[in-house]
Structures are given as C-alpha cells and as structure tokens.
Amino acid sequence: MSAPAPLLSATTLARAFGGVVAVDAVSFSLAAGETLAVIGPNGAGKSTLFALIAGQLRPDRGQVRLEGRDVTRLPPHRRARLGLGRTFQAPRVFGALGLGEGVHLAASLCLPAARARARARMLIARLGLEALTDRPVPALAYGDLRRLDLALALATSPRVLLLDEPVAGMAPAERAQLMTLVRAIAAEENLGVLFTEHDMDVVFGHAGRVLVLDHGRVIADGPPDAVRRDPVVRQRYLGTP
Ligand SMILES: Nc1ncnc2c1ncn2[C@@H]1O[C@H](COP(=O)(O)OP(=O)(O)OP(=O)(O)O)[C@@H](O)[C@H]1O
C-alpha cells in the first residue's frame, strides 16, 4: 500500500510581480500533526506563499495539493471547503456582529447546522471567550480579537490551519499562551499547522519544523535546532549570537 498523501503540499511554486520573483520554485509538504513555521527576512516571500496556498493568488508555475487533490486553480472558498482553515481578519468581516454569532456563522459556512452550533460553542469555551459571546466584534480588546481570529480559522473543522502572524502585537506571555493552545488543539484534532511569525522565541519555542525563505527560495527546511545552527540561515537571517 502506498503512503497516504501529505495533508498539504507545494511543488515548485513560483510567482513574480513584474520583475520581482516573490516565490521561486518553493516545494514542501505538511503532514497531519505537524506544526511548520515559515520564516525569513522582510520581502522573503512569506505572505505571497501564504496567498498562493490559500488561493488569493495564482502561481505562475507549480502546484498546491490538499490531501493529494490539486487545488492550484481553486478559489479560496473551495479550498476552505476541502479543509483549509485560515484567519479571516475578523474585525473587517464581521462589522457589528457579536463574537458568538460570528464564530457560528463561520462554522455554518462548511458544517451542517447542529454541528456548526456545537463546534462554535466548543471553540468559544476552548479559547476562553465565553464571557465575550455577546460582545460586538469591534468592541473586543486586541488579544481577544486574536483569539477570535483563531476560533474563526478553526470554525470550519479544517485539516490544515494557515496562520499568518497569529500572535503579532500581543504581549510575550499572551503569545506563548495562545501558541500553546494552538498546539494543543492541533494535536487533539490531528491538524497540520502552517504559520509565519517574526518573533523567533515563538518560532523556535512552538514549531516542530521550520522552513526558511530568502529571496523567494527555500534555504532551509528541518527541525528547529538544525535550522537555528544552519550557517546559511545564520548568515542570511538569524545573525550570529
Ligand atoms: N502585489 C504585489 N505587487 C508587487 N510586488 C509585490 C506584491 N506582493 C509582494 N511583492 C514583492 O514580492 C516580494 C515578497 O513579498 P512578501 O510580502 O511575500 O514577503 P514577506 O516575506 O511576506 O515580507 P514581510 O515579512 O515584510 O511581510 C517583495 O519584494 C515584495 O515587494
């Protein structure tokens, strides 16, 4: 029997903007239960890679597969239905809606009514947002908005979770707490998690694997300790201590 397809795979993905090659022949795969951080200097291509995977951008070349299925030409909502969860930028999407209604609405996009309600209730409790269920989204404090972002990304019961700087702007203790929760939920639900982050404490403290981009190319992909010691990564990105 052949091995199961990875949850998510990118094969020689490339995308240029005019003369700038933002993502250049990037290949990687993500298995169930893995937490992979994508890091690199400003302009390395992280946001472009995420947009290619989520479907906001089409690649010039290469393929994106979800559980073996080619989704390269599918729009974002079709990828979401096939199991790709991502952050929504909650405040802009939900207007004056209450937090609870927002999570329920997101769950209803992909799940039948009874499951959507149960899923929303479970996530609100799991993320410590119960006291804020009726609070309008624009009235939420920053840290609660980041928790809501995560609840929304998880609402559709995804297989792959795509998190673009999930803890940006939070205090260090809050960052560690939220990332610990992400890992716990991912382990419980056997998800694959792909995240970008500029805070190296978060990256090396919480990723099971780290992929480093530089000028659109993968310069390292491996366990955090090996990546941290990699001389090319040190020279181009992390610097020497
Ligand atoms: N829509 C666009 N039009 C033109 N150039 C773009 C566009 N999006 C990205 N680029 C260019 O592509 C390269 C990669 O940008 P990208 O935003 O993907 O990098 P990044 O690693 O996410 O950077 P940061 O860490 O600063 O967010 C950069 O040179 C950027 O200027």
From TrEMBL:
* Family matches, as Gene3D superfamilies: P-loop containing nucleotide triphosphate hydrolases
- Show the PROSITE patterns listed in the entry: ABC_TRANSPORTER_1, ABC_TRANSPORTER_2
Q: Which UniProt keywords apply?
A: ATP-binding, Nucleotide-binding, Transport
Task: Domain (ABC transporter): give its ranges.
Answer: 8-240
Gene Ontology BP terms? D-alanine transmembrane transport; L-alanine transport; L-isoleucine import across plasma membrane; L-valine import across plasma membrane
On whether Ion transport is a keyword of this UniProt record, the answer is: no
Protein name (Swiss-Prot/TrEMBL): ABC transporter ATP-binding protein
